From TrEMBL:
This protein is involved in the repair of mismatches in DNA. It is possible that it carries out the mismatch recognition step. This protein has a weak ATPase activity. One of its GO terms (cellular component) is cytosol. The keyword ATP-binding applies. GO terms for biological process: mismatch repair. This is DNA mismatch repair protein MutS. The keyword Protease does not apply. The lineage of its organism: Bacteria, Bacillati, Cyanobacteriota, Cyanophyceae, Oscillatoriophycideae. Residues 739-755 form the DNA mismatch repair proteins mutS family domain. One of its GO terms (molecular function) is damaged DNA binding. Belongs to the DNA mismatch repair MutS family. Keywords: ATP-binding, DNA damage, DNA repair, DNA-binding, Nucleotide-binding. InterPro entries: DNA_mismatch_repair_MutS, DNA_mismatch_repair_MutS-lik_N, DNA_mismatch_repair_MutS/MSH, DNA_mismatch_repair_MutS_C, DNA_mismatch_repair_MutS_clamp, DNA_mismatch_repair_MutS_core, DNA_mismatch_repair_MutS_N, DNA_mismatch_repair_MutS_sf. It comes from Oxynema aestuarii AP17.
Length: 882
């Protein structure tokens, strides 16, 4: 149980130990409201408006929950469930958390999939006549977090909205902490699922026409008949009324938000579903943020086909942002490449890796900057040094705009803006586009930074209403107030000396306590010498305590002046904060340029330290990598131990390279590693990065597909083999001749001959029908025979050296097919009985002797290139004949 519990709230709260089923008044909807006392009546009125959120209701120093919410919160947060007198109705369940710990507990509830409505006191309890006025000041949901401590700094927290109309869909998403706001429209639900998978939004808004469900937050995996079919179940979905997603309402909401007359300039005028999604998203922000107005950047329209498509399997198999095995960041591509020095840069690198480009122009612009920074290490190091001084401008601006920034945030912002001129000087030394983007500093931002530094003290406190924020000399009213307080404080400080002189009592003291304020203390033995204007306030064993009218007057003046002074400081502070919010747009523009430069510096540093090369991007189908390496494995094993391997793929008139490589080799020889290495090099190249190779010429790919390993998908109840077949079907149905397909172990999850047959026909289809560039790693060395049938197929093997008692892995990929697998050898080394090994060899010999796969298919080979494979009866394979 937590140390915080309602047991420490008001005195009539009592722990509830009863069986949950016996708790009375748990359901607020079923009680007689007339019987409730005034505060509870207000509580249920508010609760009626937020039936699906946990309502945290401010009472004194606590945020309390009542009725069913109290039971839920007690269970989820392991707090003590108590009860409190709710009026004539008797006691109602209650659980509370201290107000200062709200963020922490809200975060825990959020992680468990709850939305939270915060109902705070909006007037001073001391000044309230009757019930203290309370209002919902914020609704916190997973997609609307703003609090620094609740947000991961190095990744975005996206809120998405989706509108589906048959096969077409619109998607809008934003990160309200950084203000990014995008929208798009396309067709094919699988593409929507892919986009959501790329973004990993914390919350997805879905329109529903069931009014009583509006506001429901479905936890990940919960599912609902109201979710459009085909959406991944792994997200938190919020059901919203479909009226706010109507075209006209959505449209006018966007126009008002960005103060526009038409959507033309935003690029979404003719994309009705994109507009509807964006409008619905804006309405949600209005509804949840209440008094915080979120400064969003004008919505930007994008097209998914402008980027390399990476589906969920590929993102997972290539371990782009997390590893397959344990889902950790450590060991992923992002981990190996993220040498950025700002949180903004880190978020940008993640985005770039998940959304590589399709146009040479954009890729080459990034490459140009990397090249410049590889060649000029001094400039690169100075830039990184400079970038380190720049805080998270995007999120600091976001907090300023939403009114949640504190004085330390503004000081960090000012310090960061103060670094821009030096950054500009460094940028001016470069030639490429990304360096040029920072070479001029907006004078308004310089001025803003100066003003913030001029007003705010260097190390301001966290609290904003207790003074100590603003420097002296910047505001005459404030200075006069400070002078008055200081004069009175000085008078009190001198009082001890002046009163000792006046009374002649050498040990007279001036003290302060909370109950009486300032007092003069005299030893009781000397109390007869107290002057007439001394008024006795307290008698202790050895001393008497007095006040004087003048002392009291000074004291109350100090107290009121301090209040005024704190208020004035707060006013000045909020003025500064609003000023920052007014500059949100130009600050974020700079932030984007800074983030991109940070990423390019990081990639240049890696390129230089790890000997990467600049890949030459070409428009054809060529993939020519000389001495390529796996970017993650290379840095995970001892330096110099990684064995580089080359790759040539992509047949064309000028190149005899194969389209499909059959890759064989014993277990653990490095097939998977090689396969992934090729995929990662291609992906890195299309991100604009240099690649781990001696040289590379790469044609742009439209998609990278992977099928690696075999894992049961228990969540959807699919067997290993069905997962494998689904993934393979997806590849065969969507790959094009511009795709890169990486297949590892197709057909292993079923009977050998079924598996081999499927593997064979899949490879054949890829090579003849689709002609995608493919690497097909397999233990079925029978597939090597394909190369003798199809001219665009080649065999490669990962080599090993056989010694009498062991195998040495050379990890070298060389032309030719392995004529045997080492499975039986591996079994022998593992200690299988000799008799079993002997029998296995015998069986193997029989299989090899009688296999007529190549002969059988060669007879039908004339049909292979004519797309008639399906209709032609291929001769009965003789595989079972041994
Ligand atoms: N080129 C290489 N240089 C150095 N070490 C390598 C290389 N390729 C692979 N390795 C090492 O060998 C290990 C096994 O590689 P990998 O998993 O790719 O084998 P595999 O042939 O796919 O095995 P299996 O058929 O059992 O799946 C890797 O973890 C890696 O450490």
């Amino acid at each position: 149980m937590s140390a915080y519990s309602s047991a420490s709230t008001p005195s009539d709260a009592a722990p509830l130990r009863t069986n949950l089923a016996e708790i009375r008044n748990a359901d607020y909807r079923e009680i007689d409201r007339e019987q409730l006392s005034e505060m509870y009546r207000h509580y249920v009125e508010v609760k009626d408006r937020y039936p699906h959120a946990i309502l945290l209701y401010r009472v004194g120093d606590f945020f309390e929950t009542f009725f069913q919410d109290a039971i839920t919160v007690a269970r989820e947060l392991e707090l003590v469930l108590t009860s409190k007198q709710g009026g004539k109705i008797g006691r109602v369940p209650m659980t509370g958390v201290p107000h200062h710990a709200l963020d922490r507990y809200a975060m825990q509830l959020m992680e468990k999939g709850y939305a939270i409505a915060v109902c705070d006191q909006v007037e001073d309890a001391a000044e309230a006549k009757g019930l203290v006025r309370r209002e919902v000041t914020r609704v916190i949901t997973p997609g609307t977090l703003l609090e620094e401590e609740m947000l991961p700094s190095r990744r975005n927290n996206f809120l998405a909205a989706v509108v589906v109309a048959k096969h077409h869909w619109g998607l809008a998403y934003t990160d309200i902490s950084t203000g990014e706001f995008f929208t798009t429209q396309a067709q094919g639900i699988e593409h929507l699922a892919q986009e959501l998978d790329r973004l990993q939004p914390s919350e997805v808004l879905i329109p529903t026409n069931a009014p009583d469900l509006t506001g429901t937050l479905l936890r990940p995996g919960e599912g609902s008949p109201h979710l459009p079919e085909g959406l991944p179940p792994s997200f938190c979905y919020s059901l919203r009324s479909n009226t706010v997603f109507l075209s006209s309402e959505a449209r006018s909401r966007i126009l008002i938000q960005f103060n526009l007359r038409s959507l033309e300039g935003l690029g979404c005028e003719h994309l009705p579903l994109a507009v509807r999604a964006a409008g619905g998203l804006l309405e949600y922000l209005e509804d949840t943020q209440k008094e915080n107005s979120i400064p969003l950047q004008p919505v930007r329209t994008y097209t998914i086909s402008d980027f390399l498509t990476i589906d969920r399997q590929t993102r997972s198999n290539l371990e782009i942002v997390q590893t397959v095995r344990d889902g950790t960041f450590h060991g992923s591509l992002l981990w190996a490449l993220d040498k950025t020095v700002t949180a903004m840069g880190s978020r940008t690198l993640r985005r770039w890796l998940l959304q590589p480009l399709l146009q040479c122009k954009g890729i080459e612009a990034r490459q140009d900057t990397i090249q410049e920074l590889v060649e000029n290490a001094t400039l690169r190091e100075s830039l990184q040094q400079q970038l380190r001084q720049i805080y998270d401008l995007e999120r600091l601006t976001g907090r300023a705009g939403s009114g949640t920034a504190n004085a330390r945030d503004l000081v960090s912002l000012a310090d960061s803006l103060g670094q821009l001129p030096q950054l500009a000087q460094l940028g001016a030394q470069g030639r490429s586009r990304y360096l040029k983007a920072v070479e001029t500093v907006n004078p308004d931002l310089e001025q803003l930074g100066r003003q913030l530094r001029q007003y705010l003290v260097e190390n301001p406190p966290l609290h904003l209403t207790e003074g100590g924020l603003i420097r002296s000399g910047v505001d005459t009213v404030l200075d006069e107030m400070k002078a008055q307080v200081e004069a009175d404080q000085q008078w009190i400080a001198n009082l001890e000396v002046t009163e000792r002189e006046r009374t002649g009592i050498a040990n007279l003291k001036v003290g302060y306590n909370k109950t009486f304020g300032y007092y003069i203390s005299i030893a009781r033995s000397k109390s007869d010498r107290a002057p007439e204007d001394y008024v006795r306030r307290q008698t202790l064993t050895n001393e008497e305590r007095y006040i004087t009218p003048e002392l009291k007057e000074r004291e109350s003046r100090i107290l009121t002046a301090r209040d005024d002074l704190n208020r004035r400081e707060y006013e000045l502070f909020t003025g500064l904060r609003s000023q920052v919010a007014n500059f949100a747009e130009p600050i974020r523009k700079v932030a984007r340029a800074v983030a991109a430069l940070d990423v390019l510096c990081a990639l240049a540093k890696i390129a230089s330290e790890r000997n990467y090369c600049r890949p030459q991007m070409v428009n054809g189908r060529e993939i020519a990598i000389v001495d390529g390496r796996h970017p993650v494995v290379e840095v995970s094993i001892n330096e110099g131990f990684f064995v580089p391997n080359s790759t040539r793929l992509g047949r064309s008139e000028s190149s005899p390279s194969p389209d499909l490589i059959i890759l064989t080799g014993p277990n653990a020889s490095g097939k998977s590693c090689y396969l992934r290495q090729v995929g990662l090099i291609q992906l890195m190249a299309q991100t604009g990065s240099f690649v781990p190779a001696t040289s590379a010429r790469l044609g742009i790919c439209d998609r990278i597909f992977t099928r690696v390993g075999a894992v049961d998908d228990l969540a959807t109840g699919q067997s290993t083999f069905m997962v494998e077949m689904n993934e393979t079907a997806n590849i065969l149905n969507h790959a094009t001749s511009k795709s890169l397909v990486l297949l590892d172990e197709i057909g292993r999850g079923t009977a050998t001959f079924d598996g081999l047959s499927i593997a064979w026909s899949v490879a054949e289809y890829l090579a003849t029908e689709i002609q995608a560039r493919t690497i097909f790693a397999t233990h079925y060395h029978e597939l090597n025979e394909l190369a003798s049938l199809l001219s665009n197929v080649a065999n490669y093997q990962v080599t090993v050296k056989e010694l009498p008692d062991r195998i040495i892995f050379l990890h070298q990929v060389q032309p030719g097919g392995a004529d045997r697998s080492y499975g039986i050898e591996a079994g022998r080394l593992a200690g299988l009985p000799d008799v079993v090994i002997r029998r296995a060899r015998q069986v193997m010999g029989q299989i090899e002797k009688h296999s007529k796969i190549a002969v059988g298919l060669r007879k039908g080979a004339r049909h292979l290139d004519k797309q008639t494979v399906e209709s032609e009866p291929v001769e009965q394979l003789d595989l079972l004949d041994f």
